[in-house]
Amino acid sequence: MTESSRQRRADARRNLESLLEAAKAVFATSGVDAPAKEITDRAGVGVGTLYRHFPQRSDLVLAVLEREIDACAEAGPALSATNPPAAALVKWIQRYTELVATKTGLASALQSGDAAHQALRTYVHQRMVPMLDTMIEAATAAGELRAGVGATDLLHAVALLCHPIPGERPDYGRHLVEIFVDGLRHRTG
Q1: Which of the two ends of the chain, N or C, has the fewest CB atoms closer than 10 A to its terminal CB?
Q2: Is the per-residue pLDDT at 189 higher than 60?
Q3: What's the predicted TM-score (pTM) here?
Q4: Residue 147 host element (H or E)
């Protein structure tokens, strides 16, 4: 490999990292539908560089969110190892709520029928559903969770409850999720 090609690869890696960091910051303030120019200006690269790395907006959104989605999915087994089943599930739901509620536009993307967001929805479901099914089964078997609740139900409910509502405070979705979680508890009598 020549020195010139090594330099190009190092530049490409730096550009990629700059784009991911810039997109993460821009998504946090302006949402996942922020203009590409806002991201590239912050990263110090051209729009062509963005599209060379991420041909579709959904590719960029997924790349930015993958680490956080992975960390949320990996939290399930750790919480289950240190808490009773229902408490672990509630703590995980709170973590997932924070992920969805603090990423402007993520709730919409997860619920969108737009084919551009399919990769994101697929990734979330592949990472979350098996782990969440295990947590739900444990809480149901312990008699702490009502029967008939599935992982997809929880993922969709939290995403729907975290949609921004005009005129409501930013943490209103978290409040709605608290009400939803209370309704999940198994009741006797």
Answers
A1: C
A2: no
A3: 0.76
A4: none
